Amino acid sequence: MAGMSETQANKWRKTRTIGKGKYMLFFGILPWGIGLAGLFTGLEWLTQQTFTPSWLYIRLAVFLVVGFFISSVRWHALEQKFHTYSTDK
After folding, report:
1. What is the pLDDT of residues 6-36, one digit of tens each?
2. Cα separation of 43 and 45, whole Å?
3. Alpha-carbon span 33 to 31, nearest angstrom
4. How far apart are CA 56 and CA 34, in angstroms?
5. pTM of the predicted model, to two decimals?
6. What is the mean pLDDT of residues 35-46?
C-alpha cells in the first residue's frame, strides 16, 4: 500500500472531521447510488426508448448498497494510510 504525502494527509485530516457517516453519504452512497442509477436509467432510455419505474427503484437500491460498501472500504483504507503516515512522523 502506497503511503500518503503531506498534502494528502492534510486533505484527509480535514475531510475526516465530518465523520464516517457523512463521508460515506456524500462520497459514496449518494454519488454512486444516484449517479449510477441515473446513468443506467438514461442508457435504458437511449437504447430502448422506455422507462420502467420498478427498474429505477431496483437500481437505486442496488447502487446505494454498492456506494455504501465502496465508501466504507475507502474510509478504512484512507484511515490506515493516515495512521501509517502519522506513526512514521
Report:
1. 999 999 999 999 999 999 999 999 999 999 9
2. 5
3. 6
4. 10
5. 0.84
6. 95
For residue 1, is pLDDT > 80?
Answer: no
Question: What is the DSSP secondary-structure string of the chain?
Answer: -----HHHHHHHHHHGGG-HHHHHIIIIIHHHHHHHHHHHHHHHHHHHS---HHHHHHHHHHHHHHHHHHHHHHHHHHHHHHHHHHHH-
pLDDT class of 89 with cuts at 50, 70, 90: low
Do the Cβ atoms of 52 and 44 come closer than 8 Å? Answer: yes
d(CA 12, CA 34): 24
